[in-house]
Amino acid sequence: MSRREEYEEKTERLLEPVAEANGVSIYDVEYVKEGGGYYLRAYIDKPGGVNIQDCENVSRALSDRLDQEDFIPDAYTLEVSSPGLGRILKKDKHLQGCIGQEVEIKLFKPVDQCKDFTGILDSFDSDSITILEQDTHRNFKRTDIAVIRLVLDF
User: Fold this and answer.
1) pTM listed for this prediction
2) For residues 49-67, b (16+ Cβ closer than 10 Å) or e, as one string?
3) What residues contact 5, with CB distance under 8 A and at least 6 apart?
4) Which of 28, 46, 55, 123 has its CA 20 to 30 A from that of 77?
């Protein structure tokens, strides 16, 4: 397990009781380096969406727990937010909740001279994701997918 994965896993464990106490669910946790700094991001959700007060309450409580545990030696910025409307679908639970919805898939390498595909999320398993694109099922290896996210429909 990488250092990043370890930090994310430990943070998620600390976040579980905080999220429950605040009536929200954990969507994802990520620890990333951007620019010259590290960011620890917790994405929370609830039916109807989260508001700024939810984010503030969870941020304060999680920050206190992180200070107590102090397992991340690097300086970092803690961010707590909603996963947003065009949320990235990283985990199986994210994909399962979006079956039948329109998604955008970006590939690492082109297939049929194209790296971007949009369609209805039809199914997935541990190795692949299938979308319905204009009455045609398209199957992609998960290892070929750079990112999959919900399509914003305005």
Assistant:
1) 0.82
2) ebeeebbebbbebbeeebe
3) none
4) 46
